[in-house]
Amino acid sequence: MPPKKRPTHRDVAQLAGVSPGVVSYVINNGPRPTSPQVRERVLRAIDELGYRPNALGRNLRSQRTNTIGYIFSDYNPRSVFTSTYSATILAGIVEQVKARERYLMVYPVGVGESLAQLEQLLTSGLLDSVIVRLAQDPPDTNQLLTLINETGLPCVCVERPGDPQFNFPSVTYDDAGGAYTATRYLVAQGHRRIAHLRGDMHYPSARLRLQGYKKALTEAQLPIDESLIYGNAWTPKDAAEGVRYFLDNVDPPTAIFAANDDFAFVAIEILREKGYRIPSDIAVIGFDDILMAQEMTPALTSVRIPLLELGREVVNIVVRQTSNPEDRSATTLTLPVELIRRETA
């Protein structure tokens, strides 16, 4: 049996008794007005034929696509799919998008990349709303947020808040507080030589985790020893160099606080190779608490970010703002982080 022919623009016009141009005016809500009677005839013909003006199946009566755009802005935009951390947030977004009967369009954009193509997407009418992941703080994010703001689309920021001038809500977590808690825990365990494998200092998250680490040492009246701080990139190579650097120290550390779990995994691997026992010789704490942290042996002590919840919450907020245009307050929801104690510290 040959496949059923898909109805066309002209089929709708013929059934409704109007010109193809009038069908376009109804679909696009302009540029020329149509009478309520003509509009109703066209919509009835569209429903009867099962015509869809684009692959998204736009709901013409509400002029909505039910599609949320996830703009992932990062120095390495491909990490939206390759990083366990970023992919877990995306998983939370996808889960809630499906639960709310919406669709998702993912658009990675590099920091400093031309926004011309993104502008075309934002003004195409394909999106009802936007979630934007920010890897920077204002004013570095202002160009991107200005572009989104000019479209009038509801927008929620995730991970980092935008400049208050845009009045966009955000969902974040406490980087500095998590690092402070982890370091204070190590101090309470009796450690006085605590090293920090820090992340890429271009990222506010890395800077804030370093800040929390230093605050805990200062409150415990312990010196901030720069020889116990290493790193400026989110790469395993950088973490490996840092661990070897610490171990070459005349007075090596008894504990390592890593800026993420991947760094902690690298640290544990190298410590084992060199014959160190964990945690009796050197304790290790990570940050993020990705799934592998609890599955590895020994299980990793880590600061848990509710990554799935982060993704779910931004969807809930942006759907609510799409349904209620008057409810567009610039509130910041800061999700709590917690130290999950396991076997490495």
**Number of DSSP-assigned strands:** 12
Structural class: alpha/beta
Mean pLDDT: 91
Shape: elongated
Instruction: Indicate the low-confidence ranges by residue numbers.
Output: none
Alpha-carbon Rg, integer? 26 Å
The oligomeric state of the chains shown is single chain
Total tally of structural domains: 3
Measured distance between first and last alpha carbons: 67 Å
Task: Indicate the CATH topology of the largest domain.
Answer: Rossmann fold
Helical residue percent band: 40-55%
| Helix count from the secondary structure assignment | 13
Strand content: 15-25%
CATH fourth-tier homologous superfamily of the largest domain: Response regulator
Major sheet details: 6 strands, parallel
Q: Strand sequence of the main sheet, in spatial order? A: 2-1-3-4-5-11
Task: Give the CATH level 1 class of the largest domain.
Answer: Alpha Beta
Overall description:
This protein has 345 residues and is α/β, with parallel strands linked by helices. The chain folds into 3 domains: 1-63, 434 Repressor (Amino-terminal Domain) (Orthogonal Bundle); 67-173 and 308-336, Rossmann fold (3-Layer(aba) Sandwich), CATH 3.40.50; 175-304, 3-Layer(aba) Sandwich (Rossmann fold), CATH 3.40.50.2300. It is built from 13 helices and 12 strands. It has helices at residues 9-16, 20-27, 36-49, 79-82, 84-99, 116-122, 142-151, 175-188, 204-219, 236-247, 261-273, 291-295, 307-323, and strands spanning 67-74, 103-110, 129-133, 155-158, 170-173, 194-197, 229-230, 255-258, 283-288, 301-304, 332-335, 338-340. It has a 6-stranded parallel sheet, with helices on one face. Helix 12 (291-295) links the parallel strand 9 (283-288) and strand 10. Helix 5 (84-99) packs parallel to helix 13 (307-323). The longest helix has 17 residues, at 307-323. The radius of gyration is 26 Å and the shape is elongated.
